[in-house]
């Protein structure tokens, strides 16, 4: 059951169905990460985050590679695929494709996503986009 909620959330995000994203998340949703933004509080703020992300990667699509459910937690490995057409922080558009997988954990309460933890490899992404060169 909880896996389906997360699958629907990713599908809604991919289709830019912000109304459905709001329906699938609690109003006081919290997204945590060790990368900026470190915390997003509220499902409206989450939608704004995704809209801003689309300014950088307008063709962005996420695909669930792995999904595991345990009680109220759902663990996922998700592939992020998109072309950097806008600025990424201080980095200008590269027009390169970023394909990177990240780990995301979701807590489901009362059939809605209440919080998530998202971790990804920023260095790998910046190298792929040509912003950093490793020798």
Automatic annotation (TrEMBL):
Gene3D superfamilies, alphabetized: 3.10.450.50
Name assigned to this protein: Ester cyclase
GO BP: any one term: polyketide metabolic process
InterPro entries in UniProt: Cyclase_SnoaL-like (IPR009959), NTF2-like_dom_sf (IPR032710)
Pfam family, one: SnoaL
């Amino acid at each position: 059951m909880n896996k389906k909620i997360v699958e629907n959330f990713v599908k809604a995000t991919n289709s830019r169905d912000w109304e459905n994203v709001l329906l699938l998340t609690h109003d006081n949703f919290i997204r945590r990460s060790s990368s900026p933004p470190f915390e997003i509080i509220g499902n409206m703020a989450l939608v704004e985050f995704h809209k801003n992300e689309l300014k950088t990667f307008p063709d962005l699509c996420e695909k669930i590679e792995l999904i595991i459910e345990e009680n109220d937690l759902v663990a996922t490995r998700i592939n992020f695929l998109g072309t950097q057409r806008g600025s990424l922080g201080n980095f200008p558009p590269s027009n390169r494709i970023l394909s990177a997988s990240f780990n995301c954990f979701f807590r489901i309460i009362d059939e809605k996503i209440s919080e998530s933890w998202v971790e990804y490899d920023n260095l790998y992404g910046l190298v792929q986009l040509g912003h950093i060169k490793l020798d």
